[in-house]
Amino acid sequence: MQRLxxxxxxxxxxxxxxxIIEDAALVSRDGLIEWIGPRAQLPAGEYAESHDLxxxxxxxxxxxxxxxxxxxxxxxxxxEQRLEGASYAEIAAAGGGIASTVRATREASxxxxxxxxxxxxxxxxxxxxxxxxxKSGYGLNLAAERKMLRVVRLLGExxxxxxxxxxxxxxxxxxxxxGRADAYIDQVxxxxxxxxxxxxxxxxxxxxxEHLGFSPAQVERVFQTATAxxxxxxxxxxxxxxLHGSSLAARYRALSADHLEYMDESDxxxxxxxxxxxxxxxxxxxxxxxxxxxxxxxxxRHGVAMAVASDLNPGTSPALSLRLMLNMACTAFxxxxxxxxxxxxxxxxxxxxxHASHGSLEPGKVADFVAWQIQRPAELAYWLGGDLPKRVxxxxxxxxxx
Length: 402
Ligand code: NIG
Ligand code: FE
Fold this sequence. Notes:
It is found in: Cytoplasm. It comes from Pseudomonas zhanjiangensis. 36% of the residues lie in helices and 23% in strands. By secondary structure, the protein is α/β, with parallel strands linked by helices. It starts with a strand and ends with a strand. N-(iminomethyl)-L-glutamic acid (NIG) binds at residues 68, 97-98, 101, 208, 236, 239, 284, 311, 313-317. Fe (iii) ion is lined by residues 66, 68, 236, 311, 313.
């Protein structure tokens, strides 16, 4: 089906950077963008359907490229503990933190995990998110990691969203392996990753490189296994301290390294050379009341693409709004609204390896876009959350109106 979309402006992100077309038109056909440009240059012809967008601003469908939205249990009590002065590391050392979500996730049925995950994914969807990444990492054994990743696949089948699944089996040490981190990494490499990859449940492999998580040497073994399985890698790196995980990620041509508050310039240079995307997660920065900023100027200077994501998870970032993350990326990290918007479209697509098909409005890419009833694109980062009037189009079909 061919459709013409008219009476709009577009922040296209074409050519790999923030770029706009005033008084634009877009033609979609069979789920793809067939043509986009200034309305005055629209090729003459008959279009099966024409949609008046009432002066809206088009952006690519938003992409949340880092979430942990499948989980069991509740950690709002830890939020209260932190407000009373406990640190994330202290709570983790006392058996809370990731370990508490692991217990609850192992106990939950697939149906229970699915219903919570659907609720959270719908919140993102209602904001104009059309592509979503979700990580495992609260199962930490074969059966529970499989259960999580099956739920991730179900989200993609049940919702009008493109969903990418990332296996984060190397997120934390499960209690049954206490004191035996290398033995757990053996299990991840010999059993968990090969099995789950063989079942088609894994699009990418992630790990948590941190004193609380795994050492660079352990992460490297996970990366070697992923590479042997033909899977791209990503890494939680430099969130709480500097272990040069982001340089390690770059050596393995990682799609992204994420968090990055404690990275140094040598890490930035390594990521620039490898084309690894820096995924900034202002929700976790905010909730942990972190004061050390990711080195935004160095990332800019060296030309590292910066994505922005929610990190939606029950511990450090219960963020149900990607647009709020745009505001926080600007206010806390000093991104410009244009950089932040490119961070949830263009660069987020690259962080998922989807840049050939997603992340910008260009002929041949999927027709995933949002028509926002706003005066200027900067408004997407300006409003603190809330529901902006918009129409969401995925694969050329309108999925919401309001
Ligand atoms: O991205 N850094 C590690 N993983 C998550 C937190 C997970 C949790 O606390 O449950 C993050 O911040
Ligand atoms: Fe995370």
